[in-house]
Amino acid sequence: MTLLIVFLASALYLVATAHIARQVRSGHPGNRAFFLYAGFAAVVLHGTHAGLTLFTPDGIELGLFSAGSLVGLLVALIAIITSLFRPVAAVSVGAYPIACVLLVLSALLHDRYAPRHFSTGVGAHIVLSLLAYAVLAMATVHAVLLAIQNRRFREHRVAGMLRTLPPIQTMEAILFEQVAIGFVLLTLALLAGLLYVDDFFAQHLVHKTVLSIAGWAALGALLVGHRVAGWRGRTAVRWTVAAFVLLVVAFFGSKFVLELVLQRG
Fold first, then answer.
1. Contacts of 67 (CB under 8 A, 6+ apart)
2. What share of the chain is helix, strand, coil (3-state, %, to 5)?
């Protein structure tokens, strides 16, 4: 049953991606409702799979691949919500494949993670962390599109994809909105972790915490630099991508080493 759900969700993600990619190549917006409906249906199926696999009688199974699947689900959902209010459907070209790959990995690969029950505080830390990663993943996809948009404008290649994107100023405004939201969520997640997670050394969380704080500091520096020194363009793209890489290494890199290399699930 769960494999059928994964197959249908993946097919819908790929169909929606192909539809958007065709619009991007042609430079014409086309039927915006189709990819929204297809994407929403995929998200519903994706969420159904997460509900069936994460919650067990012994607790919540939140291993490397399950957590990745949840982030992918949130990324796709954020892409849909953003597309409803802003003309940035092209962002889903990156969001839907990310969600699809993470969903398939969670279905095919077994997590070395023992299900467990979480306290309210730790649960809040986990939820806020996943939301922060999803928002910042979308900001990173947005930053990559902004970089491509800037480069094509400098090369005077104003065609194709550029016709499906809003002006650069609007793209930058959306990017900094996403970075600011991700920064706030990450701040709350770190505070919840410091308050409610016990014994960082026993749980091998020191390196994860240090890298997370480094990513948080990079995001804070970007926001301050934008406000004070007017950072934008390639500078904003580089800082966004660098901060996200630090956070990915902190969370998923740590889980990969602990669960798959050291087998300490």
1. 130, 251, 252, 255
2. 80, 0, 20
Tens of pLDDT, residues 116-154 = 777 888 888 889 999 999 999 999 988 998 888 888 777
Which residues, in sequence order, are CB contacts of 265 under 8 Å at separation 6+? 63, 111, 112, 113, 114, 258, 259
Q: Are residues 135 and 191 in the same domain?
A: yes
> What is the pTM for the complete model shown?
0.89
* Residue 88 CB burial class (10 angstroms; 0-12, 13-18, ≥19): buried
Specify the DSSP element, H or E, that contains 157: none
Flag residues of the chain having pLDDT under 70.
26-32, 111-114, 156-163, 198-205, 258-265
pLDDT in tens, 200-217: 544 556 778 888 999 999
What token pair was written down for 192? 């919840």
User: Does one domain contain both 130 and 80?
Assistant: no
Number of domains in the chain: 2
Which of residues 79, 99, 117 is at a domain's end?
Answer: 117
Q: For residues 214 and 246, is the Cβ–Cβ distance under 8 A?
A: yes
Are the CB atoms for 76 and 42 separated by under 8 Å?
A: yes
Go through the chain and tell me how many residues it has.
265
Residue-range definition of the domain harbouring residue 82 = 1-117
